[in-house]
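pinging the channel bc i need a second pair of eyes. not urgent but kinda urgent?? the chain im working w is below, pasted from the shared doc
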Amino acid sequence: MQRFDEMAMPGSAVLFQILFTFLCAYIKSTEAVPKKYDMVAVIDVGTAYSGYAFSTSPDDVQNPENIVLGQWKEGLKTHKVPTSVLYNNDLSFYKFGYEAENTYEDARTECSNCKTFVLFRHIKLNLYNTKLDRQVTITDVSGKIQKPLIDVMADTINYLISQLRQKSAEHGVNNNGDIKWVLTVPSIWSDQAKQLMREATLKKIELEVDIVLSYEPEAAVIALKHMQKEFFQSGVKYMVIDAGGGMIDIVVHEVQDDGTLREVVASSGGDWGGTRVNDAFESLVETSVGKETFDQFKADYIKDYFGLMAAFEYKKRMISKNKPDIVLDIPDSLIEIIKKPTGTGENSQLIVDGKGLTLTEEIVFSLFSQSIKNITNHVSKLVQEPKVKDVSTIVMVGGYSQCHLLVNAIQNISADVQVIVPNDTAYVLKGAVIYGWNISMISERVCKYTYAMPVFGQSGLNEEFVIWVNKGTAVKIDDCLKKKIRNLKLQSYPIFSLYASTEEECLKGKDCQKIGSIIPKEQYSPGDMHKDMRLDICFGGTEIQADVLVLHTGRYLGADCDFLGLA
C-alpha cells in the first residue's frame, strides 16, 4: 500500500534530506552525459510502405541531403517498400516487400502445385484504437490464418534493420559500434502501441541498445525546418498534417526564440488515411459484381487484384477538380466478371470500355467523401481553438498529401492560412534522423490524457485518485513530476497502477481506465521496510518514463513502465 503526501519532518532531518537528495540527483545527472554515437539509424514502419535511413555524423543535422535512405526496385528511385510480410506455411518468416508480394502472387496464380505461403499487409492499422497486449493476433490477406501482431511487427522491423545494416556496411559503417535506433510512430498512438513497437524491436536485436521513438509529424517538420528555414522564424505557429495510408496525425507547434519547437495543443487525428479511399473503391467493385464473385476473383487472380489496387492507388493521387474522372487499365479476368450479369442491378456504376474501367466524377468524389469529411471537420474545429487561431501555415506530408482533392479541401478551410506540400517524400525519415542526433529540438509537449494513480487508505481499499497531470497540460520534455510515497508496512516494493482518462478529471469508475503499471527494477531490500520513497514520472517524452528513489538511502531503484501486461 502506498500513500502520497507531503510529510512534516524536524528541521535537521529536512536539511539532511534536501542535501542528500540533491547529491543523489547530481550523481544521477552526471551519469546522463550525452553519449557519442557512430550512427543514428531510423526504422519507419508505415501502413502501406516502410523504409529506413541512417547518418554517421551529427553534421548531417545541418546537411540533411547527406542522410542515406533505403532504395528498392533497381532502376527506380524509391526509398520505401510495401509493408507486406510473407511467411512459409509453418509461419516462419520468408520474404518482405516487393519480393513478398511477387512470390505470393506467383504461387497463387501460376502454379497450382506450388508451395503455399501466408501474407500479411497493413499491419500498422492494428495498433490504433485496439486493446493491445502481447498476445493480440492479426489475420492474413486470406482471412483464415492468424499470427501474434508483435511477432509480425518484429519480423518487419528485423527485415528493415538487416537491410539498413547491409547498406551502412557498404558505406563503411561499423555496425558493431554505438548506434542510436529511432522508431517512427504516430503521435496519436496509445502508450500500449508505442511499447509494442519497442518490444517488437527488442525481440530481434541486442537487449543493450539505445532506442528512442520519434513522432512522425514532428520528424517531418524538423526536417522541413532545416531545409526550408524561411518558413520557421521565431514566434511562428504552424500545423502539420501527416496524411498517410492509415493515419491522419496532426500537431501544432510554435517556434521558440532558441529555435526549438513547442507543442501548442495536444496532438490529434484518426484512422482516416488513404486506405479508407482504397477500401471504398474495393467496396464499390465488390457491390457491383457481387461479394461472392469478387471474393472468387481475389482468390483466383490475386496478382490481378493487387495490380488493380496498385493502379487505383497511383491514379487517386492525380485526381483534381479539373480532372475528376479515373480511367483504370484493368485485367481481362476482371472485365469478364464485370460483364457477367450478377442480379444486383448495380453494374452500371462501373463503365467498361475496351480494357479501361471509368469511374465518373460523381463516383470518384463519393469514394473520397467520408475520409476527406472526417479530416476537414477535425481541422476546421482545431483552427477555431483559441491557441490555434493564429496559425499561419499548414504543412501537409505523407503519401495521402499528394492527393489534390485532399489538399484543395484543406486549402478551402481558411483563406488566411498558407498550405505547403513539400515535394520531398522523405521528410519523416530525414527528420527522425535529425531528431536522433538532437532530441531536445522539441522543447515541450501537451498531454493527451489525464494521468492518475489510486491512493489506498488504512482499509487497503482504493479510496480516491491522485492526479499526476491533467489533459492539456504543457510539459517540458526533460521535466519529471515527483511525489513522496509513504510506505505502509510493505515487505516488497510497491507496483504502481497508472490510470488515464480522456477527460480533465479522473474519477473512480468514470472515464478513468487502468492502462498499465510502474514496476521498480531492483530486488527488495528489508532495510527499506517502512521507509518513504519518491516516485518520479516524466510525461513530456515520446514515452512515459519513471524512476523510484528510496529517500533514506538516496538509492534509485529504476522502474519499468508496463502497458502491455495488465491494462
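so Confidence is low (pLDDT under 50) at residues 1-10, 23-33, 343-348. and The chain is about 30% helix and 30% strand. — does that match what u expected or am i reading it wrong
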